[in-house]
Specification:
The structure is a single chain. 73% of the residues lie in helices and 0% in strands. It is an all-alpha fold. α2 crosses α7 and α5 runs parallel beside α8. The model has no long low-confidence stretch (mean pLDDT 89).
Amino acid sequence: MSSEAKFESTRRRLTEQQAETVDKLTTAAVAVLREQGFSGLTVRMVAAEAGVAAATAYTYFSSKSHLVAEVFWRRLNEVPREVPTDLDPVARVCRVLRDVALLVSDEPALAAASTTAILGNDPDVEHLRLRIGMDIRGRLIAALGPGHAPEVLDALEIAWSGALVRAGMGYESYEQIADRLETTAKLIMAGQK
């Protein structure tokens, strides 16, 4: 995670000690998800796993959806933003979409929980959803390069969000979704060369 993002929380800027506590909580959340799944996860359970008081955990996370959305946001932040400049725009866009689609593919419980959490209506989740969407939009803009049609960007964003929902609902694996996103991006961009 970028050093700047480590000290940024949905609710406030963090001190180093607070950032360490949030790191413990987000790490513990993944461990609890592996054991309990999203339906069994509670903020109290995560706090106990992290060795943190439940009240402390709630000062950082308003709900389990907020906590899981934060884990997703942190994972996204760890994915490098630079796309090789020697690739054409289609290959760059495919790379971005594949990287984002495979973001949580190695953690099935986190992957399933992320979709549910990110679609939640908690105000803190809404804030993270906006940040996640803006981050992915920025990555796509950079991959598309100058002179792209705004409709192409819109279509790619819709494809990505729809793919996230499909994978989260268990219709396809994240690896399959990554392949389908690549095919979709190529079709969307076919007329843009």
